[in-house]
């Protein structure tokens, strides 16, 4: 049986890419019995009489999966945050980074709309770039008409399956359209009253861009740490992991424990204080999470 990758799921149909051609398939009934639902990004075996009448027979084991957006087998996440309109939000960026780190997916950061800044704002964004690059995250300062930044983004996308994350209105669809004008993905103006964009992307779909596959998704509609356990949170901050052996106690949560390597690194300005403060906020949020039954 041929195998391929689901690149779109819409209205009960799954569109499977195999040898450069797309086959419209349905899922077999036994998936429903097993409570398994095929996802965009799944590698599947399928049977098709023609391009419009196929059936998915089996799904290969996934290396990762997201619930919102529903997608599997992602190599990396491009986290897009705008420098302005909406205002740059380091807390929100760190929240996205934790959600991606939890899935063991490599992130890279794109700060968009750099062409709309004054000198002071530009300097501030450059300092954030240095901060995140010191942690180990690649950062691209981008503007839609800046070919150098677009080339940098394209080099990150090559030969990988990438999911795009970021709040509405930061310019995700505009970036993709700039990289590949054939896409013509809908973009909406920022809602001035809300200060944020409207959701323009309605379903998950993988696009072939820059020799890779890119998911423009309806966004990470849930930014809550619903599945993340307290003990996992420190592992989602790479700079904490780098010094955790300096902690006196194994399983240190880097909060109230004495002789903590992370707190010492924050005091020595080796770890950014704002990153540590965001960590404490997330820690408190997980500790006070209502139990789900």
TrEMBL record:
PROSITE patterns: ENGC_GTPASE (PS50936), G_CP (PS51721)
Gene3D superfamilies: Nucleic acid-binding proteins (2.40.50.140), P-loop containing nucleotide triphosphate hydrolases (3.40.50.300), Probable gtpase engc, domain 3 (1.10.40.50)
Domain EngC GTPase: 72-221
Top EC category: hydrolase
Chain sites annotated for binding Zn(2+): 247, 252, 254, 260
Residues that hold GTP according to the record: 112-115, 166-174
InterPro entries: G_CP_dom, NA-bd_OB-fold, P-loop_NTPase, Ribosome_biogen_GTPase_RsgA, RsgA_GTPase_dom, RsgA_N
Annotated CP-type G domain residues: 63-223
EC code: 3.6.1.-
Keyword annotations of the record: Cytoplasm, GTP-binding, Hydrolase, Metal-binding, Nucleotide-binding, Ribosome biogenesis, RNA-binding, rRNA-binding, Zinc
Cellular location(s): Cytoplasm
GO biological process: ribosomal small subunit biogenesis
Cellular component per GO, a single term: cytoplasm
Cofactor dependency: Zn(2+)
One term of GO molecular function: rRNA binding
Domain of life of the native organism: Bacteria
Cofactor binding remark: Binds 1 zinc ion per subunit.
Assigned protein family: Belongs to the TRAFAC class YlqF/YawG GTPase family. RsgA subfamily.
Functional note: One of several proteins that assist in the late maturation steps of the functional core of the 30S ribosomal subunit. Helps release RbfA from mature subunits. May play a role in the assembly of ribosomal proteins into the subunit. Circularly permuted GTPase that catalyzes slow GTP hydrolysis, GTPase activity is stimulated by the 30S ribosomal subunit.
Subunit architecture: Monomer. Associates with 30S ribosomal subunit, binds 16S rRNA.
Protein name: Small ribosomal subunit biogenesis GTPase RsgA
Lineage: Bacteria, Bacillati, Bacillota, Bacilli, Bacillales
